[in-house]
Specification:
3 copies of one chain form a homotrimer. A 9-stranded mixed β-sheet of chain A has the order 2-1-3-4-5-6-7-8-9, with helices on both faces. The first copy, chain A, starts with a helix and ends in a 9-residue tail after the last strand. The radius of gyration of chain A is 17 Å and the shape is globular. Chain A has one domain (4-272): Ribokinase (UDP-N-acetylmuramoyl-L-alanine:D-glutamate ligase, 3-Layer(aba) Sandwich). Chain A is an alpha/beta fold and 281 residues long. Chain A is built from 11 helices and 9 strands. The first copy, chain A, has helices at residues 4-20, 33-43, 56-60, 75-91, 106-116, 127-133, 153-158, 202-214, 220-240, 245-258, 261-267; strands spanning 23-27, 46-49, 65-69, 95-98, 122-126, 165-169, 173-178, 184-190, 269-272. Chain A is 46% helix and 16% strand. Chains in contact: A-B, A-C, B-C.
């Protein structure tokens, strides 16, 4: 049974997204750039992919939210990641870190550590990336997850010294962060589809959607829960209309567009979960 | 009611496109590279994305048309833009400037000004980009348009000192340029779909299609009108088969492929419009 | 009539692909990066696009297969190509060279020659690229093929001094390579669809699929035959469900996912062909 308070928070957030049409700045990888933008446009936001060193900082100061995704860095974009993150931090623009491939790949792991200095509003990754980023070990298999997302909860909690909220994606998504009163909460979002991992960039584009929701929600925790729920509900609907990953991707974009506050109320599966003993509130 | 002369010009142009299969060279952004190539292949042209400094100039000399799109420049591609534009100008290859994000982003705005030295055959942008490029003010909101496209007509006319023809995309597209006799004309193309701005790269890929049509039409004005009309008719058909932006994008590629001269004759909505007093012919 | 031995080899290979889910490392162009990854995920493999100089070598040593595709090189990725190819060669990771645009474009032609030093397991290109790479002349028209693929057989055979197996794509695909006993064989795969060349990156993604199959087959010849056959069967099925290139691309991803060993047995068209006199076995 869903947490009614959380479901209404998400329903309000999706209305706010469509009202405000936040402009995201994405610094994302070349695999996901097109699909991520289509996901944002379908969901009700807007996107500008600005990842050069000359413009990344200035734009981060005026964007509604910024996504830094480590998928396919080179020397130029890696520098732009840091410029954008610092400018976002200085200007108070919410920003999201998606630590793609961190752990198995040492160069980008160093970039990720550097980025943590600028205190991302939210970190979104799969379980193995969250575990790796927290320095608890774990290994990454490309951009796929080798761990169960529930296993990443201790790592996600430890990352709250660097970020306001953290999520680990998987068949069930685990999200931790501080609520409006400053207390740490744990929220689990179910739903989704077994076809999601068969379409590339569904995770990366979720990171973009988090950046969009951060622009319209009071806390990073709310933004993460809203983005994960929008995706879980839309992908569940999409699977009903799919005969493989190609038709699933098409139906997913349609569903992101057609899902509204009432769809969220009837379909969302959001639950609080108990945090491990010893979590400081 | 459509301008019969213009409709027949477009009908001839689409036949010429399918007969000649022009090869476009695109220097476009990483968000649009895939979709733009699919749009060109579906419409009946061909594309090679060649944007490195070593090959951009040599290829521009032999391509049928060149697109320079400022969407996601870095230092390397920015240099390749200038190399390709100069080589196209020298060789007489028609080329298109798509000034994505010009106005709000100072670095690329400087690149755009540099590019104007090489006299693009056609400039295609949204209204705010055209206004910004003309130096008439206006501001850009990412890659979306903040202005009505009719408002961009004075700016488009002022850009005719740098280019043979200019278009401002919007719910209705406004196009100005010199006809075969050297007189400046204004042409308006209606149609399209409200779902077009919900799919990324529909504007950028229109720029690529302009480059393809420039290879097979006698004037840049004809090429712009043909490309805008092909897109307007195809997107109108696509909307009839869409239940959201995902299925719209699929139906749009199908429609670009299936539209022919007869579809143009039955569906195109092309009208001349009066130019402001004082336009020099 | 199909070669029963070869069909059973392909049927075993597709089962092995689904069992082992090999991880490909792609260094591919920005036009194909998204579609190629979706093709690999739909077919049953996994992909990580890692093309920076810092990580390309380390990952090539642990990946199941590596694809080096010359589609949109710049100075950085060109250096990464060489690093990845050398690391793959040293570690014994099978790797594929896709010589996009070689012949007409001198800079990347030099890169391709440098890459041959690291002995690709397989080379996959269209006929004009294979002919150009073999130094037999021919010219490339962008990334499309200007030659009949049968014409490329002598060039493909001459490339066997640099690679274990070579394929030339076309309406019929011609593949040559050494079998398990060390004898050179020629195999022809028919099927496919006239809509394949109307969707960009279908050739590039075939190169990625070759890298995936190389990870699970005993010889590079088997890997090439399996990848070409999977694509030929899937595209034939997709065409039955398509009304243009947009819906074809969607149905193609669905079909890559749904095709299994039994579909291969009922649909594959694989034949041996006689090699020219004088081929050394």
């Amino acid at each position: 049974m869903s947490d009614t308070v959380s479901v209404e928070t998400v329903a309000s957030a999706i209305d706010a997204l469509r009202d405000q049409v936040p402009l995201v700045q994405s610094l994302t990888n070349i695999v996901s750039a097109n699909f991520l933008t289509n996901v944002l446009l379908a969901a009700g936001a807007s996107n500008a992919h600005i990842d050069n060193v000359h413009e990344a900082g200035g734009f981060a100061a005026v964007a509604g939210g910024v996504l830094v995704n480590l998928g396919t860095p080179d020397d130029g974009t890696a520098e732009a990641f840091l410029i954008a993150a610092e400018a976002a931090r200085t200007a108070g623009t919410p920003w999201v870190l998606d630590p793609v491939g961190v752990g198995g790949l040492p160069w980008r792991s160093g970039i990720a550590v550097d980025l943590l200095r600028f205190h991302p509003s939210a970190i979104r990754g799969n379980a193995s990336e969250i575990i790796a980023l927290a320095g608890l070990g774990g290994d990454t298999r490309g951009v796929d997850s080798a761990s169960d997302s529930a296993d990443a909860v201790p790592a996600a909690l430890s990352l709250l010294k660097h970020a306001d909220a953290v999520s680990a994606s998987g068949p069930v998504d685990y999200i931790v962060g501080r609520d409006g009163g400053g207390d740490v909460r744990g929220i689990r979002v179910s739903g989704g589809s077994a076809l999601l991992p068969r379409v590339t960039s569904t995770g990366c584009s979720l990171g973009g959607l988090v950046a969009a929701y951060l622009a319209v929600t009071p806390t990073a925790l709310d933004g993460l829960v809203a983005a994960h729920t929008h995706v879980a509900v839309a992908s569940e609907i999409a699977e009903e209309n799919a005969s493989g990953p190609g038709s699933f991707a098409v139906a997913y974009l349609d569903a992101l567009y057609n899902v509204n506050a009432d769809t969220i109320r009837s379909r969302a599966r959001i639950e609080s979960f108990d945090l491990p003993a010893g979590v400081q509130n």
